[in-house]
Amino acid sequence: MKRFFKFVFQQLESLYRINFSQRFYVTAMGLSVLFVFSFWWPVLFYLANVGLWALGVLVIFEALLLFVFGGISAERYLPKRLSNGDENPVRLTINIDYRFPFTGKWVDEIPGQLPTDNPEMKFSGRKPQEYQFQYQVRPFERGKYEFGMLNIEVTAMFGLVRRHFKLAQPQEVPCYPSFVHLRQYELMAQNTALTFGGLKKFRKIGQQKEFDQIKDYVIGDDIRKVNWAATARKSSLMVNQYQDEKAQQVIALIDGGRNMKIAFDGMDLVDYAINAALVFLNIALKKQDLVGLQCHDQQQQDWLKPSKHPQAMQLIQEKLYQFSPTFSETDFSQVYTRLRHQLRQRSMILLFTNFESERSLERQLPYFRKIARQHLLVVVLFINNTLQDMLQDPVTDSASAYRRGVAEKAQNEKQLMVRRLQQYGIHPILCRPEELTISTVNKYLELKARGLI
C-alpha cells in the first residue's frame, strides 16, 4: 500500500510539478511513527492505516482543486530603462482564478548584478481576484539587466500540496546613467539666483555683454544704459537691456583611470561622475550653452563635439551608457593633445577625476596648467567617506589614535591639493561622491554668474 501511494506521489510530482508542503511531511512522519509502534500495540496499525488513506484522499483532493479548477496568470511591468543609482519601480499583476480558500507566495528572479535578494511576498484569498504588487530595484552599474521568471506557489485550504507556476517571461532592460535627476535639477537652469537644493547667490562681476532688447525706463534702471536714439523717437526714456552671454562651450571630461574605480555605497566613482555629468550638461544646455563630452582612459577616447542641437542630450546619454573604462593609468598628455586639436576657442572644461595623494597630482599638474592657459578648467576631487567618518570616531586606544592620524593626514593632503590647483588658476571642487551632482551644478552657475564663461 505504501509503495502504491509513493508511486502515485512521484508521478504527480513529476507530471504536474507538485511540491509537498512541510505540513504534509510532518503528517507523513507522524503516520510512520504510528506504524512503528503498531508492532507493540496492534490497535495503532488501524489508526495509522486510516490516517494514511485520509492523507492520500486529501492530497488527491487538493491536487484536483489546484490543477483542474482554476489557475493563475501574471505580468511583470518594467521601465523602458533603469536609472543608475536610483530607486526604480517594478510592478507585478497576478490574476487568481480559484474559487476556494488559498494562500500563495511569489518570488521574482532579479538580475544577479543587483545587491539585494530576490523580492518575495505572500498573499491569500477566497475568490478570483487581481493582485497588484510593487517593489523597488536600485542598480549600481550601467549595462543590460535580465529579469528571470516570476515563481508563484499556491496551496489550498489543507496546505498539503503546493502548485508551482513559472510566469512572466524573462525580460532584458538597459540601465542608463541617472536620468531621474534631470527633471529634479532643471529648475536650476531657469535662474542663477535660485537658492534651491544648496544653490547659493553670487554677486555678478562686471556688466552683461549680450544685447537683449530696448524697453521703457522704470525707476531703478541704470541711467547709463539709456538709449538716446530710441528715446528721441518714442519721446520717452528708453533703456537697453542686456543678458548673460550665451553659446559658450562647456565640456564634461570623464576620467576612466584606476583612481575612479573606488566604490562608495556600492557604486564606482566613475558612475558618480557619469550621473553628475549628465545633469551638469543638461543644465548647461538649458542655459543655451554648447555642450560636449569626452570620456577617456589609456585605451579609448570618446568625443562628442560641443553642440546645442535638440538631440545633443540623447547622444550624450548613449555615449555615457556605452562608456566602459578599463581603469588603467590615464595618460593626461594625450588628453591635453586631443583637447588642443579639438577645441579652437576658450571653453569651460569640467574634469571628473580623483587623486589620493599630492604626489599623484604633481605628476599631472603640468598638463592641467597647459589646459588652464587656454580654457577655464574645473577639476573634481573626491572626499573619501571612510576616512572622513574616522574623524568622528572617539580616540580610546593606540589603534583608534592611529586611524585618526591617517584620516587627518588624508584630509590635510586634500586641502593642499585644492590650494595647489588654485595657485595656477584652476577651479577645484572637493566634495563627497553623493554630493557631486549639486556641487558641479553650483560651480557652473557660480562661474556663469561671475562672467568667467
From TrEMBL:
Residues 214-380 form the DUF58 domain. The chain crosses the membrane at residues 24-44, 50-72. It comes from the Bacteria. InterPro entries: DUF58 (IPR002881), vWFA_dom_sf (IPR036465). Keywords: Membrane, Transmembrane, Transmembrane helix. The keyword 4Fe-4S does not apply. The keyword rRNA-binding does not apply. PANTHER family: BLL2464 PROTEIN (PTHR33608), SLR2013 PROTEIN (PTHR33608:SF3). This is DUF58 domain-containing protein. It comes from Persicobacter psychrovividus. The lineage of its organism: Bacteria, Pseudomonadati, Bacteroidota, Cytophagia, Cytophagales.
